[in-house]
Write a structure and sequence with these properties.
By secondary structure, the protein is mainly α. Helices cover about 75% and strands about 0% of the residues.
């Protein structure tokens, strides 16, 4: 039997897993796939994590954690600082405001909801980057990242669901 102190430590560690795992996935998402030109073309793993946890366990993905995750992503990608934080928080706000509907959706509708949210968030990120960098950016990388994100969402949702189940045990 665990004492009260060990129970609090156990609870704190379990509560930190979603955010910690999200940071890990963002880091892994920056590993280059051998594409020419040095561009990292990977799914938007931060958005996938924020979407999943905001729908299923928003208490384990607080707004300050979303902000830090976006900032971490900006630092890793070299993009305009603050765009990742702003857009992830914007997406988080959308998700949390619609959570009561989203939790009742099955996998196909949740996947479609992710696609719509990703389109909005990534379009805002693209436009904000254009404004902050004062130059026109090709949408091709955003379209590719959007497509990859939507394509791999079910796999990562499954992984995150298994992570969530392990937190309950």
């Amino acid at each position: 039997m665990k004492g009260p102190f060990l129970q609090r430590v156990d609870l704190a560690l379990r509560s930190a897993v979603p955010l910690g795992f999200s940071f890990f996935l963002v880091l892994v998402g920056q590993v280059p796939f051998g594409m020419s030109g040095g561009a990292v073309l990977a799914p938007h793993l931060a958005l996938i994590c924020v979407f999943y946890w905001a729908v299923h366990r928003p208490d384990l993905m607080p707004a300050w954690g979303v902000f830090l995750l976006g900032l971490f992503q900006d630092l890793l990608t070299g993009g305009p600082l603050g765009v990742g934080s702003f857009t992830l928080l914007f997406g988080y706000g959308i998700i949390v405001s619609q959570r009561r509907f989203l939790v009742s959706f099955g996998v196909p509708l949740l996947w479609l909801s992710f696609a719509v949210t990703a389109f909005i968030v990534m379009t805002i990120a693209w436009l904000a980057s254009i404004i902050l960098m004062w130059r026109l950016l090709s949408p091709s990388q955003q379209i590719f990242q959007f497509s990859m994100s939507v394509a791999v969402y079910p796999l990562f949702a499954w992984i995150l669901a298994r992570t969530q189940q392990s937190l309950i045990r």
